[in-house]
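Morning!

This is the sequence you dropped in the shared folder:
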Amino acid sequence: MIKVKILSFIGPKLSIDRLKSDVEFPGAVEDYVLRVRDFYDSRARWHRRLYRLSTVLVILIGASLPLAASLDYPHKALWLGILGVAVAAITALRSFYHWDQFWVLLRTTETSITRAYLEWKASTQEVSDSDPGAVAARKKSAGDLVDRIFNIRGNEAETFFRALTDRRDWPR
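The structure's back. Tokens below.
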């Protein structure tokens, strides 16, 4: 069976209202961080695909225009017009959406989230739920991870929205 993952443009939320104890908090944080990482990975892949597809289409259609102009066939003017409009439209979409720059931004964010998660995972030990000190330390560590992820996401959002208003300020 083929599973289709629908791309959601609304990022995952941390659901802490369903937690029954402090012991569940680190697991909920880990689940949240993994969903956020997957969200950014998926969006980065889509931006990469759209950037590459649009680039290939512009190259192929643009390169075919001289050949299409030199041949004789029915409705030649119409077909040349359609090809020209296609190149212009695809180029305009690439310019408007900046799939290449946002691919970089999203991939960088996903990498930062993965790094933070792996550092947190490496620093945490499996602890007994009966040890209050260890449970408290794990909860604090998970809280620190959430703060770090929120900072990473906040920086990404700030860069994204600043880039929408000032195209000269792209992340490079």
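Headline: The chain has one domain: 22-169.

More detail when I'm at my desk.
O.
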